[in-house]
Specification:
By secondary structure, the chain is mainly α. The protein is about 70% helix and about 5% strand. A two-stranded antiparallel ribbon has the order 1-2. Helix 9 (about 175-195) runs antiparallel to helix 17 (about 320-335), helix 16 runs antiparallel to helix 17 (about 320-335) and helix 16 (about 290-320) packs parallel to helix 18 (about 345-355). It starts with a helix and ends with a helix. The relative contact order is 0.14.
Length: about 350
C-alpha cells in the first residue's frame, strides 16, 4: 500500500524535481498546449492580467528574483489553461469532470488515512484534529478546491454531490470553508426574497473584499498597542502580517515587490509587532490573503486591474446563472485566508462563466 501511494501521480504533480508548485502541474501543461494549438488570447478580458504580469517581470528583475519570474511563467500558463478549459467545456460536461475529480480527491484522502502519510494536526476547541494534505499536497488548497467543487454542484442543484464535497473537507480540518458556505446560503436566501437585493449584497461583499487592504490600515490607525497585540494573538499573528503587507502595497511606487517575493521582505517591515516569533514561522510569513497577495506583490496598479477583471467576470456570471454569481463570490471569501492567485479552481469558475458569455 505504501509503495502504491509513493508512485501515485499526485505526488509527482505536487513536487516535480522537488519544487513545490502549489498547484496541479497539469494546468500549466494544458496552458502550454493551448498556446501551441490556438496561438491566440481567447477573450480580451484577460489582457489586464497579462499587463500586470509584464509589469511584474520588470519588478522581479529589479529585485533580482529569478524564482519569481518562474512563478509568473506558471501563472501565465494557468491563464492559458483557463482559455483552453473554456474551449473544452463547449464540448464536454464540466460536472462529469467534477465528479471524477471529487472521487479522486476522496480516494487520495482514504489512501492517506490508510498509510498514515505524514498527517498534520489542528487544535479546535480543545480537540486535536488530524489533517491530511490531499491531492494538492497542502491542507488549505485542497480544501479550497473542494469548496469550489461543492459550490458548483450546489449551483447545478446536485445537492448530494455538494454535501459530499463539503463533508470531505473534514479530512483537511479547514475552517474557512464555513465562511464560504455561510455566505452562499445567506445570499441564496436573500435572492429568494428579492433577487435584485441579492445582487446588491453580493457586490457589497466583493467590494468589501477588494477594500480589505485599506480597511485593515484604517482599523490599525484607531487601535492602541494593547488591542493590536490582543488581536494579533487571537489571529495567530496574522493581524500584524496583514498590516505590514497592506503598507507594502503602497510602497515601491505602486508596482509591488514581485510575485512570491513578499515573504522574502516582510521581516524588514517596521509594522510588525512580534518579530522574534515571526522569524520562526517561515512558511506562515506569506499573506494568507488573496487580495493582500495581489496588492503587496503587484502594487496598486496591478490590484486595480485585477479587481476590474474579477468585476467583469462577476458581471458575466449574473448573465449565466445568478447562483454561479454568488458561488464565485462565496469561493473568493475563502481566499481571504490563503494565497490563492495560482489556484486552478478560480480559473475553472472563470472558464465556466466565459464558456457561455464569450
Amino acid at each position: 500500500m505504501k509503495l502504491l501511494y509513493k508512485f501515485l501521480p499526485f505526488i509527482i504533480l505536487k513536487q516535480p524535481l522537488g519544487l513545490p508548485l502549489y498547484f496541479n502541474v497539469l494546468a500549466p501543461m494544458l496552458g502550454l498546449i493551448y498556446i501551441l494549438k490556438y496561438k491566440k488570447i481567447y477573450n480580451t478580458c484577460y489582457i489586464p492580467i497579462f499587463i500586470i504580469i509584464v509589469i511584474n517581470v520588470i519588478v522581479c528583475i529589479f529585485f533580482a528574483q529569478v524564482s519569481s519570474i518562474f512563478r509568473l511563467v506558471q501563472f501565465t500558463l494557468i491563464l492559458f489553461f483557463s482559455m483552453y478549459l473554456t474551449e473544452i467545456l463547449k464540448k464536454y460536461d464540466l460536472f462529469l469532470v467534477l465528479k471524477i475529480i471529487l472521487a479522486f480527491i476522496i480516494f487520495t484522502f482514504l489512501l492517506e488515512v490508510l498509510v498514515d502519510n505524514n498527517a498534520g494536526y489542528r487544535n479546535f476547541f480543545g480537540l486535536r484534529l488530524l489533517r491530511y494534505r490531499g491531492v494538492l499536497g497542502e491542507y488549505n488548497f485542497t480544501a479550497l478546491l473542494l469548496v469550489g467543487i461543492g459550490l458548483l454542484f450546489a449551483v447545478k442543484k446536485m445537492y448530494c454531490y455538494s454535501a459530499l464535497s463539503f463533508l470531505s473537507i473534514v479530512f483537511t480540518a479547514n475552517r474557512s470553508f464555513l465562511i464560504s458556505l455561510s455566505l452562499f446560503v445567506f445570499l441564496f436566501i436573500i435572492s429568494k426574497i428579492n433577487k435584485r437585493i441579492g445582487v446588491y449584497f453580493g457586490y457589497l461583499c466583493i467590494f468589501l473584499m477588494f477594500f480589505y487592504p485599506f480597511i485593515i490600515l484604517e482599523i490599525d490607525k484607531v487601535l492602541n498597542i494593547d488591542n493590536k497585540i490582543l488581536i494579533d494573538k487571537f489571529s495567530s499573528l496574522r493581524y500584524q502580517l496583514h498590516v505590514a503587507y497592506a503598507h507594502m502595497g503602497f510602497e515601491n511606487y505602486g508596482f509591488g515587490v514581485g510575485y512570491f517575493n513578499g515573504r522574502n521582505l516582510i521581516l524588514n517591515s517596521e509594522y510588525l509587532l512580534h518579530l522574534n516569533e515571526l522569524e520562526y514561522m517561515d512558511w506562515s510569513l506569506e499573506q494568507h490573503n488573496l487580495f493582500l497577495q495581489v496588492f503587496s506583490e503587484f502594487g496598486i496598479i496591478g490590484y486595480i486591474l485585477f479587481c476590474g477583471f474579477l468585476v467583469y467576470i462577476l458581471n458575466k456570471a449574473i448573465l449565466v446563472n445568478y447562483n454561479l454569481f454568488i458561488a464565485f463570490i462565496s469561493l473568493l471569501a475563502s481566499c481571504l485566508f490563503m494565497n490563492a492567485l495560482h489556484e486552478i479552481i478560480i480559473y475553472i469558475y472563470i472558464s465556466f462563466v466565459l464558456k457561455d458569455c464569450g
